[in-house]
Fold:
Amino acid sequence: MNLEEVYPNSPLIEVVCELRFQRNLEIECRRSVYYERIKEKYPNILLPHLPPGGAPALLQYRFENKENDAGILLSIDKFSHYDKKYKGHKKFISEFLNSWQALSDTYKIEEPTRLGWRYINVIPFGREGGLVPLADFFTFQLNFPDTNGSDFENLDMTFVTRVKEGSITTKLQTAIESKTRQEVFILDIDFGMKENLSIKNIDKSVQHAHVEARSLFEKSITEKYRQYLRGEKV
Structure:
């Protein structure tokens, strides 16, 4: 299993790394100071929509690049970096740490409370006999009484598994892409850790989060599908 590999036919539509921390009102009062530090790379400001009864300070401002495919989300207790044109974990982690360093240099951030790494994948498929071809893409099986473990017309499920220093929430569902009307699997992998977090070791924690999320993805897909991701004929 090569966690360094970047697939030519990657199904990723977005990768997000989020750090949560104790609420810091200085961020709300001096948000513009941080923006000045990152605006060359993320000049676009997208204001959050306030739902009825919502607290403005808890909503995340979005600072986005000119291409509108990567950016930062920031509120008084959360910082996220996201990328919709993911080019591998090394570049992504470097961008995350640069933006995080600018934040921690601007405000006094207390010890983090949660670190998360999320992969959102969209995988097109064609039905076989009216059923979703689960076994062509995924290694796991779902067995229910009086049914074949692959006879599913649709899927919509969520499960949480314990892993080293955290847990992974995995969501798998079938859907129809709005533009192409193509049927797809949506595979959403979200690793989260709350223990052994330290401001001084954020880089190590981010690396660990990446390994846990990527490992689950690699273990979940079949070799046949992996060949397709590599651009090989199947």
Summary: The chain has one domain: 12-229.
